[in-house]
Amino acid sequence: MTQLSINTTQNVVINFSSASVGERIGAYFIDLLIKVAYGIVIFYVFFYTFGINSIVEQLDRWSQIAIYLIFALPVIIYSIVQESLLEGQTFGKKLLKIKVVKIDGYQASFGDYLIRWLFRVIDISMASGMIGLITMIVNKKTQRLGDISAGTAVITLKNKINISHTILEDIGEEYKPKYPLVIKLSDNDARIIKETFQAVMRKPDAEILNKLTRKIEEVTGIKNDLDSQKEFIQTVLKDYNYYTQSM
Q1: What value does the mean pLDDT of the chain take?
Q2: Strand-pair partners of 14
Q3: Burial annotation 55-70 (CB, 10 A radius, 16+ → b, else e)
Q4: How far is the C-alpha of 147 from the C-alpha of 232, rounded, in Å?
Q5: Which residues contact 66 (CB under 8 A, 6 or more apart)?
Q6: One-character DSSP codes across 139-174
Q7: How far is 230 from 54, CA to CA, in rounded Å?
Q8: Overall pTM surpassing 0.70 (yes/no)
């Protein structure tokens, strides 16, 4: 399994394991089964049971194409809709615990998913999927052409991680939060803050610590009234966990 290093906007390197070719193919076939099941249901319910097919046959060619496209639309947009709504996952990817991410550390956007979806014509539809398969095999990050074009990769979420690798902080039941305004932060903000703070703890850098503190104050409106910046950042992370876990 190839290791994938992602540089965040704070120049912190996070190591993930890229999804294997087998995992990606497995997710594809799970999604394919769902699409086939949908097609079978549509055929028997609408075209067989309700006899729509006989009505369609009486229409002109373009009207027939339009009707077939309407029924096929959920299959056509299956991956882009699900990856957009499920933050980089389809049902198949979710079952196999893999996910699409941006290599630069950002959450993939709709535009990125759109590029990946458009390239499915080349990667998957053409040459029976051999183009995408060969590209993933020879690419060290197991990227297909769509991933390379969108600047994305597919990672596995099966890594064994502990609390230090997540945005979570150890807080006891009796913990009393200090800064309610931390709810202005997003999960991604909290993750970047924690990763940057951990990097500073491993390799002290006063300038980065100052920048991180100022950025937190700017985004949240909180002012550091504690004895040290380290204590302030630790409190912000714990408060964020307190409020988000309580919602």
Answers
A1: 84
A2: 6
A3: ebeeeeeeeeeebeee
A4: 39
A5: none
A6: STT---HHHHHHTEEEEES-----GGGSS-----TT
A7: 73
A8: no
